[in-house]
Amino acid sequence: MFQIKEQPVVFDVCIIGSGAGGGMAAYQLAKAGAKVALLEAGGYFDPADPKYITQLKWPWESPRRGASNHRPFGDFDAAWGGWDIEGEPYTHKNGTEFDWFRSRMLGGRTNHWGRISLRFGPKDFKRKSIDGLGDDWPISYDDVKPYYDQVDKLIGVFGTVENMDNEPDGIFLPPPKPRLHELLLKQAGKKANVPVIPSRLSILTKPINDQRGVCFYCSQCSRSCQAYADFSSSSVLCIPAVKTGNVTLINNAMAREVLTDPVSGLATGVSYVNREKLTEHTIKAKVVVLAASAGESARLLLNSKSERHPGGLANSSGVVGKYLHDSTGASRGAFLPHLMDRKRYNEDGVGGMHVYTPWWLDNKKLDFPRGYHIEYGGGMGMPSYGFGSGIENMNGKYPTAAGLMKPAGGYGASLKEDYRRFYGAYVGMAGRGEAVPDINNYCEIDPNVVDKYGIPVLRFHYKWSDYEIKQAKHMHDTFEEIIHALGGVASGTKPGADTNYGIAAPGRIIHEVGTVRMGDDPKTSALNKFSQAHDAKNVFVVDGGSFVSQADKNPTWTILALSMRASEYIVNQVKQKNI
Amino acid sequence: MKRRDSLKALTLSSLGITALNPQVALAEQRELDTQMPPETPLKIPNGRTKDEAIRDAKLLKEKFLTPSEMATIKVLVDIIIPADEKSGSATQAGVPDFIEFIVKDMPQYQTPLRGGLKWLDLESNKRFKKIFTLCTKAQQIQIVDDIAYPEKAKPMHSQGVAFFNMMRNLTASGFYTTRIGIDDLGYVGNTPNVWEGVPADVLKQYGVSYDS
């Protein structure tokens, strides 16, 4: 018998998704006293519960030694899901590419993210006014700054005050000292005229409250921190929100559609399917907040069709799904011969880089319109599957400490010596840039395909333009300048025009935004400047979907700030009886 | 030896002679021991999802490599990573079992590995009328020397070189991800600590400082 189980209570708010945007909204609204239903498509996750902990595990605790053939970032990475989830497909149009990463767990993708916590700068909200491309945001840096400040204080971020153009400083905890290769990168940056400054990561180098511990420098934030010393939405927002007593967390709740009133057109609740038991449910709520990710929120809105909203909810403009964009990405590695036979010591440090390069050039003098930043890696890391692979391409090229040249490859005691001498002598660099939002890059509902729950799936259409491809070329030129200044040897060959200069496939950087963009004009935007749907005033979108443009920064800190701002607006609107 | 004769010899060796090899006999006994493992209810290890635990348990139960293949792998990985004054050998670190798991988990290895092991036996049969594991150490090294140095190897050995590169990489993966391998390498992290920067003597060695 087909039965839909209905929650008898009417919640003040139903939030769909528990990542950065949903976690922040749940936390803020619950603190304000609202009764919240928080739906998460995946299972419960608490990084402090031994059941879930992978942090501080050794490679041999995985039979595949942490290889990434099942979990995309390795067996120990705190992401349940990945590019492909069984029974939850997505499709592509006209042979274009888009890879979509989903984490089905409390906290979503924030459990494994890079913790790179950059504010957008004043120019990032007004790109059209600068270069004529895309659109300006309906808000400015000054509108968001107070929320960035509050996010810094609530969650914690380390960094340094630099007073750089368009790289706003925050309220910073002290940064960790650079590692050896990072000191060398700073030196090289000076030679190459590329700034290398302390990174800005949401990791606690000092205590900020009695709920969370401080970093113990294991470099494994990607496994989510059992001391709650990194920002994971699970530990820092969702679990504290549940502790207020105002949040009903429902796991394994895969939202099907937002339900609306046929007369008013307003949202009345959400229907969802239990991912494990396949039971059908509805939740009634006065306000519905979508935070399911730019892709999932667009999918939900487009699937919420009714007489009143024939093109899907919040989509009278037709822009839902359009202007999808991900950060650009290109990367290169290098070998540093002078780091061979290094002295051993623990340089794990925090999870990620201690220094980075913010965008430093003027696009008016370049052949591409938007900037990028550079992230660095390297050092004496914990070995995992793939360690030492390809030594036969290295050990014949560089003499031993005693000046002896050996033939490439080999075996035996001499080979063991080689693994030791090459250990920790590599650096990696990755550019992450801003793409120009384009109406022709979009996701839409595939007319023919449903997932295993019967929910129509997304179909992607995405192509990089010359703007992004030229930017990737510039990244590679910069990488080689830095590697040269380091006295390093670049790995592999420099990608050329035939591979679009090695630009990563769209989606691979996992910064997809823009699908439910905000704007002042309801004809060209889905949301107003408070992330509220033009077409239904009790519907909000607080994930990356609301972004007008992505900037050369990572999106998380802006998602958090905008979700906090939308939550405050919801509270005020309810108080004023507007919703 | 004519091709037909060598094939005949191989058939004979795989049916008869290998059974005399004590390593093979031991491995076969182990296989018998593991053929009917007791049914135990699924235990989900910490940090794994249920689906992952089911998949890993299933893979661990299956067997891909034959006892004679495993015997050859044991010889090879200890040639690649033998015990030395600093640390133990690949077999001491359990590399053969790692390889057995990984070829089930990453099926793309199955044909190159199985075929490469066959190549090795054919080559040793050609040279010494014996499969690789029955060769003397000197004979084994003679073959290995022909395939272990990609830039010096003869073109006629290119398939052997590709196989040995794969074995070298798998052995390194398996060895350096164990306690023995990690201690050999000198990785001293993965433990709570306080990062206070690069040690002073290292700063000095590389001519860098925190002041500039």
Automatic annotation (TrEMBL), chain A:
Keywords: FAD, Flavoprotein, Oxidoreductase
Domain Glucose-methanol-choline oxidoreductase C-terminal: 450-562
Gene Ontology MF term list: flavin adenine dinucleotide binding; oxidoreductase activity, acting on CH-OH group of donors
Any matching Pfam family: GMC_oxred_N
Classification via Gene3D superfamilies: FAD/NAD(P)-binding domain
Cofactor(s) it depends on: FAD
Annotated FAD-dependent oxidoreductase 2 FAD-binding domain residues: 12-45
Spans through the membrane: none
Glucose-methanol-choline oxidoreductase N-terminal domain sequence ranges: 95-326
Origin: domain of life: Bacteria
Keyword Flavoprotein: yes
Family: Belongs to the GMC oxidoreductase family.
This protein's name: GMC family oxidoreductase
Organism field: Dyadobacter sediminis
From TrEMBL, chain B:
InterPro entries: Gluconate_2DH_su3
Highest taxon, organism lineage: Bacteria
A Pfam family that the UniProt record links to this protein: Gluconate_2-dh3
Name of protein: Gluconate 2-dehydrogenase subunit 3 family protein
Organism in which the protein naturally occurs: Dyadobacter sediminis
